[in-house]
Amino acid sequence: MFLDVKELAVRKLRIRKIYAPGSIDYHSAEIKQIEPLEVTATAELLDRQIRVEGNLETKIELVCARCLEPVIEEVSRSFDLFYAPLPKDTKHKEDRLRDDDTEIGFYEGEGLFLADVLKEQVLLALPLKVICQSDCRGLCPNCGANLNHEECRCETHATDPRMAPLARLKQDWLKKQ
Ligand SMILES: [Zn+2]
Ligand SMILES: [Zn+2]
Q1: Which range has the worst mean pLDDT, 10-14, 90-94, 136-140?
Q2: Which residues have a beta carbon within 5 Å of ligand 1, which is an ion?
C-alpha cells in the first residue's frame, strides 16, 4: 500500500490491513514473519508531513544467539510517526526513514510505502539478541552438538594437557607388551 501525498491531501486515510508472511522483506535470513501482520492505522497529511499513527501485531521467528534454535517473539507495537519531504539535496537514501524513536523520518517523491513503515517498526520492536532460555547451554564449539538436548562426547575424549605425559608413558608401556 502506497501512502500518496496527493491522496492524503484530500482526506485522512483509515487503514486496516493484513500482510501475509513473506510480503514484507525484513532483509535478514534470521528474521522470519510466521503469522499475518495486522495493522490498524490512520494516515494524514499535516503541514506537508505524513503522519502515520496506529498499531501492529505479528509473530516473528528469530534465532537463538547461542544454540541457533528458533525463538518466537510476539510483536505488538503502537506508533505515531511523522515523515517530512526529503530535502532535494539529500544524497543518502538510507536516511529516508527515521533511525530512532525521536528523529523525524523522511519520504521521497510522492509518498511512502506502508510496508516500509511497518518493517521499520517491527525491527525496532525486536530485541538485538535473543536467547531461547536463560540457561541455554548453546552449541559445543568442537562438534556442534546442541548441549540443551545432548551430552557431546568431546569433553570425555579431550585430553587434559596435564595428563599428556602420563598418556604417553602408558602408550609406550602398551607398545612394549
Ligand atoms: Zn538457545
Ligand atoms: Zn562436542
Answers
A1: 90-94
A2: 64, 66-67, 132, 136
**Residue 2 pLDDT greater than 60, yes or no:** yes
- Centre of ligand 2 to C-alpha 66, Å, is 14
CB atoms within 10 A of CB 69: 15
Chain segment 19-36, per-residue pLDDT in tens: 999 999 999 999 999 999
Q: What kind and span of H or E run contains 144?
A: none
- The pTM score is 0.77
Count of C-beta atoms within a 10 Å radius of residue 58: 23
Ligand 2: distance of its center to the CA of 19 in Å? 42
What is the C-alpha to C-alpha distance for residues 7 and 136, in angstroms, rounded to an integer? 51
Could you tell me the distance, in angstroms and rounded to a whole number, from the CA of residue 137 to the centre of ligand 1? 7
Q: Which ligand is nearest to the CA of 66?
A: 1
Give the number of whichever ligand sits closest to the CA of residue 131. 1
User: Closest Cα to residue 127, out of 36, 30, 39, 23?
Assistant: 30
Q: Which of 165, 167, 163, 143 is nearest to 155 (CA)?
A: 143
